[in-house]
């Protein structure tokens, strides 16, 4: 049979021409950076040390950075090199998956951007090998894009948010993508707070078992809108006199100077903050142009779940008391719910009472209908995750609390908390 080999040959030629037709990254546009050598000399956010690459567009630059010895991340840094101000980290590629000394950042002719350990183990990649990518660039708004021959973005960092939204970056409504806070200043892995674009409003959640609990949402009537099911962090200067930073229509803040170099971040403490960079000045170029939990916004720092750590009474922005079985003592960072042994469901738990307080549960979570305080107590005792319960004596409203956290002092003494002790 002579037909089979010639057909086979024909298919081979066809295949070869198909591979040839596939677009490649020109060799002079590829790069490979090894994570080794001297650290940079400038001051960076989180006291991070860094090693630079040549990838960037002012004021953004891609870097290796670390806050812990031997645990490196590839991240985008914001701030000009001449500036004497701190430079901030606005996006991270291999978040939660650090690599070591001599790791590599490679952009090959196949169009895949890859972070690998020194031994070649891949830690992170854009997954764009042989998809038609012909180049990579950093846009002036901080979006890192991999584009094809027709300049369509086959991958963009804006689709992979960390804890930050840049101007022009959006989140889909419904929570398929969200901002997740850092665990702490020194630990950039995903922390307990999330920002989700809800159907009627942006919502902030704190991790809790069995499910995350809301600790802030905007009033739905406050001009929240969506475009194509997405909410975008935007900059708007209608008359070159005032400069607005908005979530779609909703104005978060108005600045006196051009604030196009701004970003919105969910902070490690659960606050929502806008940082604005003024690239005309070298010294103190950053300003916090928006903070969610401040009296200016008719909100208090006392509304942040962990303003007072795992437990504390908060009044006038300050942590003022630590509730204990012996009464209210002075607050310190070690204030915590009582240590309890292994939980026995239905055991006769003891509780102690704190008068005139609420926490975030009462503001954003629907109450249980209890027949009275004994009913609410019984439900908490039946639930090992319940650390205590909020009770509104005048309305018999009951909230079981898997998180206690900051207790906001309120004027109504009938809004009380019972903390489970033994
Ligand atoms: C690569 O080569 C092309 C064509 O010669 C040129 O237009 C482009 O600027 C070069 N890129 C770099 C990064 O040198
Ligand atoms: C990194 O590679 C260099 C050689 O390029 C080598 O001298 C050094 O020991 C390596 N460092 C580590 C931690 O493996
Ligand atoms: C605002 O400034 C920009 C750039 O300087 C200019 O092009 C635009 O016409 C100005 N708009 C108004 C309303 O003055
Ligand atoms: C509580 O009771 C009210 C009115 O009696 C009712 O409208 C509401 O749905 C109830 N809530 C729950 C969670 O059962």
From TrEMBL:
The biological processes this protein is annotated with in GO are: response to other organism
The keyword Protein biosynthesis appears for this protein: no
Parts forming coiled coils: none
Which key words tag this protein in UniProt? Answer: Hemagglutinin, Lectin, Mannose-binding, Repeat, Signal
**What CDD domains does the record point to?**
B_lectin
Organism domain of life: Eukaryota
Domain named Apple is located at: 343-422
* Signal peptide positions (record): 1-21
Q: Which Pfam families match?
A: B_lectin (PF01453)
Q: What protein is this chain from?
A: Uncharacterized protein
